[in-house]
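**User:**
If convenient, please work through this fold.
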Amino acid sequence: QGNVLADLVGEGTTYIAGQGGRGGLGNAALASARRKAPGFALLGVPGESTDIVLELKTVADVALVGYPSAGKSSLISVLSAAKPKIADYPFTTLVPNLGVVTAGATVYTIADVPGLIPGASQGKGLGLEFLRHVERCSVLVHVLDTATLESDRDPVSDLDIIEEELKQYGGLDDRPRIVVLNKIDIPDGQDLADMIRPDLEARGYQVFEVSAVARTGLKELSFALAGIVAEARAAKPKEEATRIVIRPKAVDDAGFTVTFDEANEVYRVRGEKPERWIRQTDFNNDEAVGYLADRLNRLGVEDALVKAGARSGDGVAIGPEENAVVFDWEPTMMAGAEMLGRRGEDHRLEAPRPAAQRRRDRDAERDEAEQEFKEFGPF
C-alpha cells in the first residue's frame, strides 16, 4: 500500500497531484536597462511525473453485503429502480450497483456490494476490489441466503465469516448493522429463517424476513433503513469550510542547501530555485550561462560554497545525484550577463577602460566610419 495523498470527500474538492511545468521565456522578457537586447532565452521546465492510484469509492447510505448469490442484486432491484444483472451463478455482480430508495419523507441511496468470500480482506475473490465501497456507507445490511443449496453453509456461519472479513478490513466497527433473511418464499427458506431468527436477535441484530421474488417484507425493511439513515445524517457533524493554512518560510531559509558529497567528491547544491534555473539554461549559449551565474550569485550560492570550504577548481553539482549538472567552480563570477554589452561581448574579460578613453574610442570609430563613407559611399 502507498501513501494517501488526499481524500476527496467534499463537493468541489480538488487536489493537484502533479504540478505542470513552467513555460520558457523569450529574450524580450529578459530585457533590462543594462541588457537591452538579450541574445538568449530561458528553456521550459518539465512538469512533475509520478505514479498515482485513483480509487473511486461509492458514496451510498446503505451497503448490502453478503455471500455471492445471496440475493443482493435481486433485493436492490425491487427496493429501487436499479436494474443490476441477475443470474443463478456466483459473482454475477462485477461492479457495485447503486439505487435510490424513497421511504416516506426520506430519500436514500443503497449500494449492492459484489459478493464477499472468506479471505476477501486479503484480496481473495473480489474482496479488496469492492470492500472499499463500504467505507462511506452509514449502515450495513447483511443479506443472508436461507435457501442455499450448498450443504457446508448456513446463514449464521455466513454472517460470522462476513463479519470477520469486515473486521480484518478495519474501520467499520461503528456502523450499525441489520440482518435480512432472504428467499423466505421457498418453504425450506422460511423454516430456516424461523429457526435462526431468535439466535440473531439474541446477538442484538434487528432482523427482517423478505423475499425479493415475492416482494414480501420490503416496505418494513425500507422504512427501517430510512430511520437509521436519518439518525446517521442527524448525528453527522457539519462539514467545516475549507481552511487555508499558511506556512511561512523560516527567516533563515535561504531556499537552498550546500553539502559536501564525499562519495563523489563534489559540493552538492540542492534547492527548488537553483535546480529550476539549471533546467532553464541553454549551456550552448555563453550569455545564458552568464545569466545563470548572476542568478546563483544573487541567491547567495557562491557565498554558501565559500563557507562550506569550496575552493577554485572544486567540483560543484546542482541537482539530485542521478540528474545533476556538474562543473568546476571558479569563484567570484560577479555580474555575469548584467555586464554584457553588445551581443557577443563580455566586458568581464576585458580590462576596464576609463570614461575618457571610452569617449575617445567612440569618436575614433565614428571618424573612421565617416572616412569610409567618403571613400566608398553607402554600403
Notes: The longest helix spans residues 355-376. Residues 257-379 form a domain with the GMP Synthetase; Chain A, domain 3 fold (CATH 3.30.300.350). The two ends are 75 Å apart (CA to CA).
